Amino acid sequence: MLINQISIFIENKYGKLCEILALLADENIHIIAATVADTSEYGILRLIVSEPERAYKILQTNNVTVNLTDVLAISTDSTADSFVRTLGCFTQSGLSIEYMYCFSLNGKSILILRTNNRPAALEVVRRQNLECIAETDLLKL
């Protein structure tokens, strides 16, 4: 099961992150998970939000460079061993993890990840009986 993630290209300048987040705050968009990857000149803000398609439109309307992408959200125990077993399922199938971030709540971790091959990743999830989390379930956490 895939969920929508918003990826935002932002200049690495003072106040830009708050400026972008304020656009979502003004529209009561809830942030479930976030990560920032940066270089000296720009960054990529990746967000899992309550209403990804509406958030995407809000950002586009405000001339923000934004993409909507599909990622996996997999529930696992909050131990390094559990992370290794979960991610190992993809590695053993020859899939690369392009990026991953996570958040933990009540002893469980939700891994947000993107692989180099979505159809094959979904097959790994099915075959290994991994616990994927739907967007609607993320909102209930």
Helix and strand element order: EHEEHEHEEHEH
Strand content: 35-45%
Estimate the mean pLDDT confidence: 93
| Outline | globular
Main sheet characteristics: 7 strands, antiparallel
| Class from secondary-structure proportions | alpha+beta
Number of strands: 7
* Rg result: 16 Å
What is the helical fraction, as a range of percent?
25-40%
Q: What does this molecule look like?
A:
By secondary structure, the chain is an alpha+beta fold. Helix content is about 35%, strand content about 40%. Strands 1, 2, 3, 4, 5, 6 and 7 form a 7-stranded antiparallel sheet that branches.
Structure, briefly:
This protein has helices at residues 16-25, 52-61, 80-92, 118-128, 135-139; strands spanning 2-11, 31-38, 42-49, 65-77, 97-105, 108-115, 131-132. The chain is α+β, with helices and mostly antiparallel strands and 141 residues long. Strands 1, 2, 3, 4, 5, 6 and 7 form a 7-stranded antiparallel β-sheet that branches.
Can you give keywords for this protein?
141 residues; alpha+beta; seven-stranded antiparallel β-sheet; 5 helices; 35% helix; 41% strand; globular
Topology:
Blueprint: E1 2-11, H1 16-25, E2 31-38, E3 42-49, H2 52-61, E4 65-77, H3 80-92, E5 97-105, E6 108-115, H4 118-128, E7 131-132, H5 135-139
